[in-house]
Amino acid sequence: xxxxxxxxxxxxxxxxxxxxxxxxxxxxxxxxxxxxxxxxxxxxxxxxxxxxxxxxxxxxxxxxxxxxxxxxxxxxxxxxxxxxxxxxxxxxxxxxxx
Length: 98
Fold this sequence. Notes:
Number of strands: 4
Strand content: 15-25%
Number of helices: 4
Largest sheet: 2 strands, antiparallel
Distance between the termini: 23 Å
Radius of gyration: 12 Å
Structural class: alpha+beta
Oligomer: single chain
Order of helices and strands: EEEHHHHE
């Protein structure tokens, strides 16, 4: 299984984690910014999670969104994407290299 989107594709190694840099993750996530406003809605996050092949994408998007959308705007903006990293490592099978 691989995460694809634009020029980013990563295979799941034997450890079961998607391995990528933080910048690659941000670039991949922004591929789901359907309206190109530079922010991720909960619906867009759900689509990204579903694209990973993850189960319970609705539940995971609600949890991840709740952790990242600290200003309550209804969107995850550039500053809040960093808050999504911990959730992605813990709940979505990502391993980031800084």
